[in-house]
Amino acid sequence: MAYGDALGLDEATARDTAHVWDKVKGRVTPLEWRLQAPLIAEINRLKRQAGAVILAHNYMTPEIFHGVGDYVGDSLGLAKEAARSDAKIIVQAGVHFMAETSKILSPEKTVLIPDLRAGCSLASSITGADVRLIKARRPGLPVVTYVNTTADVKAETDICCTSANAVQVVEWAAREWGVDRVILIPDEYLARNVAAQTTVGIIAWKGRCEVHERFTAQDIADMREAYPGAEILAHPECPEEVLAASDFAGSTAAMSDYVATKKPKQVVLITECSMASNVAGDVPGVEFIGPCNLCPHMKRITLENIRDCLVNRQFEVTVPEDIAARARQAVQRMVDLPPPPIPARYDLVRARHHVDVELI
Ligand code: SF4
Predict the structure, then answer these.
(1) Which residue's CA is minimally distant from atom 5 of ligand 1?
(2) What stretches in the chain show pLDDT beneath 50?
(3) Binding of iminosuccinate: at which residues (predicted)?
């Protein structure tokens, strides 16, 4: 029986969504798909009419990631795409700091987020006033800020980074400023994992990603016992002992790259839950095994509110121009650095030197 008939879809919806079903059918049930497929077809029609593009983060659910995302990827990739795109309207299928970053890089475009409450525990762990205090206590040191921060914080920053380029950015900043120590905020675990890859000393802040901080070395040991053949890949926002117990550590882009090129038989991705579902759609034959943790902020974005966002042009994200101008300089410096030769990985063998981190 044809795909549309088997799932009870009308002919036009079936035609417009068959290619998406091929990617998500292992992760989405036919019952869910009967509701999702018409929404996907409607969103894709609305965005064409509006001249909009949808930037979808790797942590979106598979029906969003594969169904309506024009560009998909990690924070760095999406920020670059926002600047490159000719579209007048950008819909950020991600969290609020990502929409702000798009607006900072593309002030002439309308940037919409489907739910204004889509926040981030890292972004809310620090304010611009906190960064001013840090700079007063450590004058003369460059401030490198993870892109998971508000515009206000980026405006106090010398250069931004993501987990895909953090080591490269820290080493660049130390060279440019002629110092042996760099302020890297706000994720404490990312800072510690970066410090393990470089001889540059790191001054860190006690911010945490509420998704990645929950993973423990015991989780990894339990997975190894239950699935002895599985390869375990961890994100650098996890604690150091989780990375040390894993087979590979890297950004979401590096994890995708690893799975796509090595095609392990069984793999565990120690990161947000939807990442495995999305990568699975692109690499059939690899078995993805839990555990995973959901990001409650990312999960605020749904097909329904993306549709409403396009219909009602809501919710627009703006950044005051004086803040945007300073934040833009920090983001643009990062974007202008040459891309790392391979998606950043956190080499667990190189990490055995003295690690110099001071919490502020
Ligand atoms: S996964 Fe962590 S860093 Fe990403 S948005 Fe959620 S809380 Fe923030």
Answers:
(1) 120
(2) none
(3) 57, 75, 146-148, 163, 235-237, 252
Q: CA 182, 196, 120, 223: dihedral to nearest 10 degrees? A: 180
> Which numbered atom of ligand 1 lies nearest the CA of 59?
1
Q: State the pLDDT at residue 252.
A: 87
Ligand-binding site membership of 161 (annotated): no
| Backbone φ, ψ for residue 90 (5° rounding) | -115, 125
Q: Which of 58, 59, 95, 255 to mutate to test the pocket of ligand 1 (most atoms within 8 A of CB)?
A: 95
User: Would you call the peptide bond into 139 cis, given omega within 30 degrees of 0 as the criterion?
Assistant: no
Residue 163 labeled ligand binder: yes
Query: Could you read off the pLDDT of 12-33 as tens digits, one per residue?
Result: 999 999 999 999 998 899 999 9
148 is in an annotated binding site: yes
- Asked if omega into 284 is within 30° of 0 (cis), the reply is no
* Whole-number pLDDT of residue 76: 75
Identify the residues whose C-beta falls under 6 Å from ligand 1.
59, 95, 120-122, 148, 209-211, 272, 295, 297-298
187 CA closest ligand 1 atom index: 3
